[in-house]
Amino acid sequence: MLQKLTPEAIGIDSEKIVKYIEKLEKYNLSTHNLILAKGDKIFFEQYWKPFNKDFLHRMYSVSKSFVSIAIGFLEQDGLISLDDTIEKYFAEEFKNQTDINMKNQTIRHMLMMSTAKEDRYWFDDKPDDRVRYYFENDKPFSRHPSLIFQYDSSGSFVLGALVERVSKMELMDYLRIKLFDKIGVSKEAYCLKCPGGHSWGDSGILCTPLDLLKVARFVMNEGKWNGEQILNAEYIKKATSKQIDNNPFGHNDCQTQGYGYQIWRTYNNSYFFNGMGCQFAVCVPDKDMIMIYNGDNQGNNLAKEIIIGGFFDLIVNSAGNTAITNNDDNCLKNYCDSLELASAQGEKHSEFAEEINGAVYELEKNAMGIEKIRLEFEGETGKLHYTNVQGEKEISFGMCKNEYALFPEEGYSDNIGGEFVPGNFYRCAASAAWVGPQKLFIKVQIIDKYFGNLNITLGFKDNDITICMKKFAEDFLNEYDGFASGTIKKQI
Length: 492
Description:
Strand order of the largest sheet: 13-14-15-16-18-19-20-21-22
Shape: globular
Number of helices: 14
CATH superfamily of the largest domain: DD-peptidase/beta-lactamase superfamily
Number of domains: 2
Low-confidence stretches: none
Radius of gyration: 24 Å
Structural class: alpha+beta
Helix content: 25-40%
Number of strands: 22
Distance between the termini: 62 Å
Strand content: 25-35%
CATH class of the largest domain: Alpha Beta
C-alpha cells in the first residue's frame, strides 16, 4: 500500500507542482508538509525543514473526522443509533438541563453540526469536567436541532466522549483496535486530554502526515482496506456527502459546499478533513486523488483558499489519465531541496539597528504587563530581551531566517488542555526583518504539541517606541496581545 511514483507516472507534470508550491511560498504561508497521492501511490511528499515524516503533528479539528469514523463503528456494531438523543448516554450530566431543544438533540444532529445551543468557550471558564460543562450550557437561547448549521466544536468533543463511554475505551485505543492497526497508523499517534479525563476529540489528535493519508485513503475507499470492508460503505457515503447546507453568507468558497458528518464538502464533488491553521486531507473521488497539507496559518484568512483552491486549479484540473514524459526530471527535486519553514520577510539590515542596539526602553503600563525591552543585533541574528510578570525573558531570532529555541513563557498546557504546567515551555522558531527604516517585525512560530504564532511590530522615532503584539493561538500567548509605548531609558 502507498507506493511511490513520479508525478509524470500518474499523469501530472512536475512543473505544475513547482508552480503550486511557488504559490504557497509567494504568500509566505507557514507550510510544514505536503503529500499528494493518487490511488495507492504517492507522487509527491515533502517536509519543510525542520519538519520530517516522523513528526507527530497536531491535527486540530481533523480530529473531528476521526471521531466521526469511530461513531460509524459504534453504529455498525449496534451499540448506538444515530437518531438516539445524546441525553440517553449522559443522563447524569444532563440532569440540570431543561432546554427542550437540547433534550431533542441527537447524535446525528451533532455529527451534522446542527446542535441546539451556541458553543461556549471552555478555555475562558476552565471547567473541571468539559463534558459536564457542555450539558450545563446555560445560554438562554437555543434553536431546533437539525435545521441550521452552526459550528459546535464542543459538540464534537462530546461525540468523542460518547465513543469512550459506550466502548469503555479511550478514543485512540478504540480506533486502534477497530481501524488503526489494520491500516498501519503509527503506534505513537495519540490524543491530548481535556479536563475531566476525556480525550480532546475535537482538536487533540497528534499523528504523522502519512497516518492522516492512510485514514483519508480508507475513507476514499468507502471503508475498505486491502479488500476487507472494515466499516460499512453506507456510513462513509453519508459522512462524506452533503447532509446540511453550511453557507449562511451566500459565499462560494472551498468550505461552503456543504457539510457531512464531521467532514466538509469542497469543490469538484470532493470533501476534506479540516483543522485549524490549515490541517487538511482533501479527497477528490473523481480523480482518486488525495492532498495532505499541514501548516500553521492561523490568522491568515486567505490561506485556506490559496491552499485548496490552488490545489484544484494547478494539480487536480491538470491531471491526466495516462503517464506523460517529463522534460526535466530534476526540476521538482532541486526546487524542494531548499524548502524551509516560512520566516519574516523584509530587509536583513538597517543602519538604524546600530542606534538602538543595546538600548533599554521603559514601557508605560500596558495590557501585556511588559515593563521594559532591549534589542541586541549581531550579524544576521538578534535578541529581544524583555521583562514581564514572570521576570526576565529573551527571544533569539534570525534576520529573514529562523532561529530555533524554547519560547520563554513558562507554564502553558501540555497533555491536558487549559491546564497550567510549571516548567513547561514550547519549542518555537523566531525570525525578524526590517519592514521600514525604523520599523522591525518579529515573527514567532510555536511548533510543538500546540501551534500558534506571534507577530511583533516595533516602531521607533527619536527616543520613543511603540509596540504592537498580535497573537493567533487557541489558549496561549494571551500575555502577548496588545499595544505598548515607551521611551528610551539608558544606553548600555
